[in-house]
Amino acid sequence: MVVGLLAAEWRLLIDRHGGSDRMQMISGVEEAVVRGLSQSEGTPDAQTELKVSWNEWALKLCEGETTGCEQLRSKCLLQRTVLHLQQQQPARAVESAAEVLTIMPSSTHARALLCTAQYKAGKKKQAAATVLELSATFQRLDDSQMNDELGHPLELTIALLVEMHRTKDALKLLGGLLGRITGPRQQHLYFAIARLHAKHGLNKEALTLKLPHLCSDPPDRRTWELLKSMAEVRVMGHALPSSPRGASRGSPGTGM
Asked: Tens digit of pLDDT for each residue in 168-202?
């Protein structure tokens, strides 16, 4: 199935232009690649062939450029890795993730996908080595990287550690990240870690001890938003730690 313009058609358009016009066309290719990735992401999972076609089209556009598309190409390959895993093709996912790492060696997302694919491909020793190396990488992140990395890469890593029956390693990783949260302004990071505890049924003692440090006294807007979020998770059936002593159940205007 062919979606959008063929890579050769984009090549023809670009080759007809030079100088600043050529730069404008390269920008057009980048926009097309982003559109292809977005279309693949937005296509229902049941339409696997269409998702793959959009991804292949975007990747071909990147490969038509000799410079300036490395980051876009890595995004295409990351998406392709996810698609291989969805299609139960772990061996191909291993190859695709490894290819991303040749472009972006520090990508925690690619490494998380790699160890997941290795485990599903039966390469359990390699997966164990990769996931432990990845855990150490998370612990070395500086504060400026925390927001970006405590998303899907961390979620994949924790899910794999639990699946591998390495719950202690999962708790050690989350505990180390939790220890770097020092005040109310980092409540969003706390909640991201709390959700992973709840999702995988991990011991929440560390969360309980940390929660009072994230609540202002008297409670401010951030505190009420945190407690409201925690309450919403409890409603969904994921028990999380109780509110800190002294905090009321609701506040004016929150509807709690």
From this structure: 999 999 999 988 887 777 777 888 888 888 889 88
In the block, residue with structure tokens 């730690």:
241
CA distance 34 to 159: 28
- pLDDT higher than threshold 50 for residue 205: yes
Contacts of 15 (CB under 8 A, 6+ apart): none
How many CA atoms within 13 Å lie on the side-chain side of 10? 24
Q: Rounded to an integer, what distance in angstroms lies between the CA atom of residue 56 and that of residue 213?
A: 48
Burial (0-12, 13-18, 19+ Cβ within 10 Å), 188? middle
Q: What is the mean pLDDT of the chain?
A: 77
Q: What is the spatial distance between Cα 29 and Cα 11, in angstroms, rounded to a whole number?
A: 9
In order, the DSSP letters of 116-160 are: HHHHHTT-HHHHHHHHHHHHHHHHT--HHHHHHHTTHHHHHHHHH
pTM: 0.72
CA–CA dist 107, 209 (Å, integer): 32
Which residue is it, tokens 């990240």? 177
Lowest mean pLDDT among 9-18, 116-125, 225-234: 9-18
Distance between CA atoms of residues 42 and 201, nearest Å: 30
Angstrom distance (rounded) from CA 24 to CA 14: 9
Query: CA-CA distances (angstroms) from residue 72 to 8, 84, 156, 172?
Result: 18, 19, 22, 34
What tens digit of pLDDT does each residue of 62-87 get? 876 656 678 888 999 999 999 999 99
CA distance 9 to 64: 11
Give CA–CA dist 33/101, Å, rounded. Answer: 20
Running DSSP on this structure, what letter comes out for residue 67? S
Decide: 77 and 99 in contact? Cβ < 8 Å: yes
